[in-house]
Amino acid sequence: METALGIRVTVKAPYEQAVLKATEALKAQGFGILTQIDMKAVLKEKLNVDFRRYTILGACNPPFAHRALLANPDTGLLLPCNVTVFEEGGTCVVTAVDPVEMLGVLKGDAAVREIALEVRARLQKAMASLR
Description:
- It is built from 5 helices and 5 strands.
- The protein has helices spanning 15-28, 39-47, 62-71, 99-103, 110-128, and strands at residues 6-11, 32-38, 54-60, 81-88, 91-97.
- Helix 1 packs across helix 5.
- The mean pLDDT is 95.
């Protein structure tokens, strides 16, 4: 399912397994995980608030990142591609940013848009494999 900012899929798996499945699906499309942020732990530590299990994965496909940075160095401000895994109503949801939407702020940059379209196709394949 498409959202305003990305691609959303419900995963029929326990939370930890959903994080692992998302990581593996991304890897199969050439993405590595640069960062993994446990928002539940961060919010508890920093604000002493309880929050559902929610992980942000900072995913990067190095060849695409390199091409994008060569095309426009400002692209680095928008990297890596974020993928989230969170619990919602007894299920797990995985969302991936739509790089076309995210990189759309670089209006008129045809080279970056072409790369974003390629990255979107890879993320869509990764997300489809989670269904």
